[in-house]
Amino acid sequence: xxxxxxxxxxxxxxxxxxxxxxxxxxxxxxxxxxxxxxxxxxxxxxxxxxxxxxxxxxxxxxxxxxxxxxxxxxxxxxxxxxxxxxxxxxxxxxxxxxxxx
Length: 101
Fold this sequence. Notes:
With 101 residues, the chain is an alpha+beta fold. It has helices at residues 8-15, 18-27, 35-42, 46-58, and strands spanning 63-64, 70-71, 77-79, 84-86, 91-93.
């Protein structure tokens, strides 16, 4: 998403894996978290989740700070309290699953 635009098909591809969706569910609270923290809440190993976070980051759905923490960019986080993420063409209500809270 370096140009600020992601196609609908690319967004669908990014959201098309359960581990990426679960990572977004965790990050939808608005916290910046390390890969290990996200993986723990998702219920997988960090090295399993890392490639999925890289895909989300590469496509601009999450950002990574200098400390290595991932978060959803504030322009996409419509409501951290209700875990609503707005990617423009797609509004997600990311309610927590039993495995990640």
